[in-house]
Write a sequence for this structure.
């Protein structure tokens, strides 16, 4: 039997078109994220976070966002969403630091 890993957290780009937002919402419907972390003071990032999660936390840096996301995922058992610099539209990040494209 194959060992299935669930991402610890996801990283999404802050500015999304309606079509991109729909695509991300569909992808996150499999493993919903109750919390999002924002490290920029960008209005579009805040709107994206509020569209995808119930609660938004603002931190001072990208490193702080990744540290907090790992900690919250471990403590709550739920993946967390970071709104910020993503390599793709939506990236998954696992506990071992491995990153992969979701969409």
């Amino acid at each position: 039997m194959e060992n299935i890993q669930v991402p610890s957290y996801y990283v999404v780009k802050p500015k999304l078109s309606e079509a991109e937002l729909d695509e991300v919402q569909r992808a996150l419907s499999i493993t919903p994220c109750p919390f999002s972390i924002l490290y920029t003071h960008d209005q579009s990032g805040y709107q994206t976070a509020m569209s995808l999660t119930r609660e938004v936390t603002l931190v001072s840096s990208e490193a702080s966002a990744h540290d907090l996301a790992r900690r919250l995922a471990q403590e709550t058992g739920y993946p967390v969403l970071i709104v910020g610099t993503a390599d793709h539209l939506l990236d998954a990040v696992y506990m071992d630091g491995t990153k992969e494209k979701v969409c």
Notes: The chain has a mean pLDDT of 94.
